[in-house]
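Researcher: Last one for today. Full complex below.
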Amino acid sequence: MPRASSLSQFTWIALADPTRRSILERLSRGEARVTELARPYAMSLNAVSKHIQVLERARLIRRRRAGREHFLSFDPDPLTSAAAWIEAQRSFWMSRLNALDALLQAEDVTTPKTSKRKDKSR
Amino acid sequence: MKPQPQKAIVQVTRKFSASAERVFDAWLDPNTVGKWLFATPTGKMGKIKIDARIGGSYLIVESRDGTDVEHIGEYIEIDRPRRLVFTLKVPKYSEEITKVTVEIRALGTGCELTLTHEGVLPDYIASTTSGWNMILDQLSATL
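Model: Here's the assembly. Have a good evening.
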């Protein structure tokens, strides 16, 4: 299963687009102005701004204003919390399946259905 | 129906020494379900109603600290012992309807189960994390 599909809604949407991933990649190397960010892309400044908005909604980008200039920087926190969240979900289901296995094995001890049942899961 | 690709997906896989049939039946037998599926150590299992057919619904109520927590849903696919698909909603925490797919394949004398939970939202886990931590603590104590 691809890791990206385990992320929360806004994070997933934000990361689903190659342009936005490349914007994050650029910002992970340091703060940049909107105009600087837009330069490598064959699209309007407006189109790049839309991508930036999606990343801001996912809180993957922080904006700092200095006079008329807007500086953007990368914020990896949502990726961390998304990973923690998915881990908690997975733990929940794994704990339920562990409980089921324990229950079925306890049944085997009290009412053996097959004479030669061996525990192969350990 | 609109597609929901942005919803998160959780997937876990586990091996069982019990047969695929026994593991499958544990999901639909009311006497078994109450002992493991949505049972927490401090909670008391309440009403369990299971209408185990496609389109049939289920209700599993657990009382936690005097509050009833309902788990409700509907069976979408029942293909014993290979595949079980059902919806899951916990109204106390979220109005969101999520989908759980259970796939079981025979493996030697036992089986391997893969569970996929789709459409889970972060706010659901936020309100239940403490409960789940408790579940995990209890489990490690009993296993």
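The CA atoms of residues 53 and 66 of chain B lie 31 Å apart. Chain B touches chain A at residues 5-12, 14-18, 22-23, 26, 32, 35-39, 108-110, 113, 115, 117, 120-122, 125, 128-129, 132, 135-136, 139, 142-143 (CB under 8 Å).
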